[in-house]
Amino acid sequence: MPNIRWLLVLITTIHRFIYLASGGWVGRFLSFRKRALLLTHTGRKSGKTYVVPLLYIEDGPRFIVVGSNAGDPREPQWWQNLKSHPRAQVQVGRQKQAVQARKASDEEARQLWPRLEQAYHSFPRYRERSGRDIPIVVLDPNAG
Asked: Which of 16, 65, 120, 124 has its CA 20 to 30 A from that of 130?
């Protein structure tokens, strides 16, 4: 498979810019079923603030995201950062709220994975291609 990391970085940069520039009016929906949030988190080494758009599903008040990194064998930086600094913020549309991040338990992951696959058909291919355990991450606004 050719390395298209540059393309993923470009798409993410444009998406983040539009989402932020529009104040959340544009960028929340990628299509009818695909929704994106902005995750603001702290760098584990730099201490800098980073913002990344991520696909998500809702599970009650919680947001569920996947550290697929488009099937790359490396974990995404945002997940590495959250493991060190689990307090973060999500923006969904114009609404912002603080969240606490954690990896889903094995039981939660078994229950959530079919919903994630249904919502985002690329996840099974990413899971197979990555050759690693892809974390399902729970962003909980009530745990902080």
From this structure: 16
